[in-house]
Design a protein that fits this description.
mainly alpha, 60% helix, metalloaminopeptidase activity
Length: 326
């Protein structure tokens, strides 16, 4: 019947994706919104996963997938949420450096709001040091929030705690992560200069790359380093292997698919860096690493060109008080 939903490959027994070319996607979404328990627990993760991959590859619109995710505000089972989490996290990372990211964050908060309220947030004291009142499991979140909404005084205080006697390695990582949460350009510039000084701070580079401000600073560093190397080689003042270890670390961090350039407005940085990269010798140390970085970044920008406007328009229409610009 044209108005009866159906499911193929229940339980994902077959290793393939399912795409419904009729109106079955809409029927399944309507059913999930009305009574999601009428669809078997084993089928809901499959529906989420199949529809996300189809949308991500352009076989269906992201509008359809996002309409499906509305039902997640009711979902209570672990496996469907695990599948949904992977899809939502992918979108989170792709939108992270875009100006429309706030609208997406607001939507995800709506989805998890009920589940968060049901959690027992009573925390057990995990640290015997009475001077520390923040449970260890929450410190990275607390530090990041304090730095994001604080000023330079808070940032400098947290940095001062890094070398306090008996600071554990996990705590040091929490501090480095928290310091990267600043939204102040001057503070992030101070942080960038600080982490360059000593290799023990370089573990902060991936966290730095997630920050919209930090990501652009890393790209500027790579561009200037490659440009300087190219100029030095032209003047015979630098050898093909003359590249500092810090720049290598930066390139490797930015080459992570989710940390590379994701902002369409910064696409010119790719073109400028690529122009200098093309002039490096084929056997240069950075030739392969830069190729991976540029390839991944251009792929991410293509994804944004294909999907961003659709996603932002959907957020405007479905998330209260979302005022975003494409």
């Amino acid at each position: 019947m044209p108005n009866d939903w159906y499911i193929i490959n229940i339980g994902q027994i077959g290793y393939y994706r399912v795409h419904y070319v009729d109106n079955n996607w809409e029927l399944l979404i309507d059913e999930l919104l009305k009574n999601y328990r009428s669809i078997p627990d084993s089928a809901r993760p499959q529906i989420i996963g199949d529809l996300f991959h189809l949308a991500n590859h352009g076989n269906v619109s992201f509008t359809t997938f996002l309409n499906l995710t509305k039902y997640l505000s009711q979902e209570t089972q672990y496996v469907p949420w695990t599948t949904a989490r992977r899809a939502l996290l992918y979108l989170d990372r792709m939108l992270l450096l875009d100006e429309n990211y706030g609208g997406y964050q607001a939507y995800v908060r709506l989805l998890v709001n009920a589940a968060v309220r049901d959690v027992d947030w009573i925390t057990m004291r995990e640290d015997r040091n009475e001077e520390k009142h923040i449970p260890p499991g929450l410190r990275s979140v607390v530090y990041c929030t304090a730095i994001r909404f604080g000023g330079q005084a808070e940032w400098k205080f947290l940095r001062s705690q890094y070398n306090v006697n008996e600071t554990e390695d996990v705590e040091k990582e929490n501090i480095l992560t928290g310091l990267s949460c600043s939204r102040d350009v001057w503070t992030m510039k101070l942080y960038f200069d600080w982490i360059k000084q000593d290799k023990q701070y370089w573990s902060a580079i991936p966290e730095f790359a997630v920050s919209p401000i930090g990501n652009r600073m890393l790209w500027d560093h790579v561009h200037e380093a490659v440009k300087s190397l190219k100029t030095g080689m032209e003047n015979s003042t630098r050898s093909p292997t003359d590249i500092d270890e810090f720049t290598k670390e930066v390139i490797q961090s930015l080459s992570n698919p989710y940390y590379s350039l994701n902002n369409r407005n910064d696409g010119e940085k790719i073109l400028r860096t690529e122009a200098d990269w093309l002039q490096l010798p084929q056997n240069h140390t950075l030739k392969g690493e830069l190729k991976n970085l540029l390839t991944t970044s251009k792929r991410n920008l293509k994804w944004l060109d294909t999907h961003l406007q659709t996603i932002v328009q959907w957020l405007k229409e479905n998330v209260p008080h979302t005022e975003q610009g494409v």
